[in-house]
Amino acid sequence: MWPRFLTVALLAIASFFLARLPVIASRVFDPDEFEHAHAAWSVFRGMVPYKDFFEHHTPWYYYVLRPLFNWFDVDTSFASARNFLLFGRGLSLALTIVSMWIFVLVGRRWRDRRLGLLAGLLLVSQPVFFQKTLEIRPDVLALPFYLGSLWFLLAGLDAPATAKGLRRFIAAGLCLGAAMMCTQKMLFVLPGALAGLGLWSLSSGTAAGARPRILRAVAFVLGVGVPVAATWAAFAAQHAGHEFITNNFLLNASWQHRPTHDLPSLLVTSGPIFALGLAGIGVSLRRVARAWRSPSRPHGDVLLICTTVVLFAEVLLVPVAHRQYYLMPLPILCLFAAQGLWGLVDRVRAPARAAFLAVALLALGVLPALSFREAFKERNDEQLAWLRKVFHDTKPADLVMDGWRGMGVFRPHAFYYFFLHPETVVMLPPAHLDAYVDALESGAVRPKLIALDDNLKSLGPRFVSFVKQNYASRDGFLYYRRD
């Protein structure tokens, strides 16, 4: 049964990735994708994030995308701009395949190959994983670093107190630090991992036994700090070190979130995985309780439980966590879900196990199949039509003021805060918002085009009045300067 299952699992995982290919070109663009594409294009043009334009995501993803603009004339050709956006999604697909390979290795390191493949199949089929890893966003680059950190931590827990074991903890820290420099949300992983390492150190039972473990935990933390410190130093050399800390960490700590319904939606679409995950956590807790006093304690279980529990607790503490936040705890939850499912399979009589597993996987595939069907209905035709019009009516050097529709993705932005969605507007003080209108009224900033969406209208009646008096529109959305 098991060799046949391994083959089927690999084919099923490959099928889920192949099913993404037609969706890449047709699925609606999340406004985040335009934000990240514009930030990367601004870096390509020589601008420094945080200093020359606003961003509140750590910068590695933008510098990875930067050289790709050498292959596309995104500011002169609509076709080339569209191709870049699709290429960016293709890059996300490639990064997700790499992440899946690492994730299967994590499952194999924790248990065995069959659990790793089953966990991979469960993860790749989850609707939120499909939705967010298809997009142009830094979380997709952070994911392989994060999963690599888990692999090195699990490998380090099993390694003897030698230089090789120490190097694994350093590598785990470097990977997690790199993930943080792709998106600062990965900072949420650190407390849970440290809690697991703390219990691992205390379980040695003696001060002499705890000392080398504490040393390896410290090496892990130092490894985390290396990419962070190096990136900060690079921005400090460009006189943006203060802004790097303020925008990425201090500002995000007090960020005002708009209401969403992402958590209830996740509980609906991934409810079976949550149930199986809880069952798998129960299996690990029983294993830990039985083997805590034995020499071969299940330290990997403790680490994964601590990381999962703390991640979900932290995500719940965020006023409103968007769907991409769940890319951190969801992989570990799928590991536990695979363990829970195998526990159910093992309770079935041997002749019927294969049939039981097949039926269970088919049942678990119903919600993902519905999600894939919905993805084909959410088309980007209207977005691309608007973007084509912007390219037709403006030149590469024309300023475009955009709210949160992404129409200025490959045009120079009019203001430091180049995107203005409800969360950004709430964050800015009234005096800063008034300065926007002051600059427009004085002529200090003269956008050729203003995409007047609801987010820009929230700047107030004074701004809307200025636009209506000085700009003309035929469709009530794209406003062109009258002169």
Q: Number of helical segments?
A: 23
Radius of gyration: 25 Å
Task: State the end-to-end distance.
Answer: 74 Å
Helix content: 55-70%
Whole-number tally of structural domains: 2
Any idea what the shape is? globular
Largest sheet: 4 strands, mixed
Specify the structural class: mainly alpha
Beta-strand residue fraction: under 5%
Extract low-pLDDT stretches.
none
The side-by-side strand order for the widest beta sheet comes to 1-2-4-3
Number of distinct beta strands:
4
Structure write-up:
There is one protein chain. Helix 6 (113-124) crosses helix 16, helix 10 runs antiparallel to helix 11 and helix 11 packs across helix 12 (241-253). Helices cover 68% and strands 2% of the residues. The N and C termini lie far apart (74 Å). The protein has helices at 2-18, 21-26, 31-44, 60-65, 78-110, 113-124, 127-133, 138-158, 163-180, 189-202, 207-236, 241-253, 262-269, 271-291, 299-317, 329-347, 353-364, 366-377, 381-393, 422-427, 430-442, 454-457, 461-470, and strands at 400-402, 449-451, 471-472, 478-481. The chain has 483 residues and is mostly helical. The protein folds into 2 domains: 2-377, no CATH class; 381-481, no CATH class. The protein has a 4-stranded mixed sheet.
Characteristic key phrases:
2 domains, 483 residues, mainly alpha, 68% helix, 23 helices, globular
